[in-house]
Give the backbone structure.
Amino acid sequence: MSRHPTVKWAQRSDVIFITIELPDAQDVKLKLEPEGKFFFSATSGMDKIPYEVDMDLHEKIDVHESKASVGKRNICYLVKKAENKWWSRLLKQEGKPPVFLKVDWDRWVDEDEDDQDNKGKVAPDTDFGNFDFSKLNMGGGEGFGAAEGEDDDDSDTEEENVEELPPLMKDASSSGAEPEVKKD
């Protein structure tokens, strides 16, 4: 029997962001149908445990304009809506959503803020729509944000950042008694 990975989603008026959190996914398969059928399957781990998601999306989608990106920790889908309008929910079924489905609050934008936030966020040579890779939480080591050629050696040393403390009294430290504290 297949397991369900965690699925996060957010929307704009023209697209749906679907992120499937499944580290080291292999044999990734995606099937999108214009009526809004979304099917995902993959295996993960050394035991090749099967994972599967089968959802009926709320409205129709444009299969040809939708895109996918498989990463080491997750699989991201940019699903183009057939009509530019906000959906009241992700799935056709009403009621409580499945437990594996969660809102992607890192990408969430309210409907009234959509027009303001979408302008000018994508580089002109980018072919991935409004997909913001900085929101993927992919991590990064020290100096991740440093420009090329820059070292991430903070020139501040501990001595520069520590306030000078008054020296301890010699006989208080040697006798085991607590040092005297001066109050300003």
User: Anything to note?
Assistant: The mean pLDDT is 77. The longest helix spans residues 170-175.
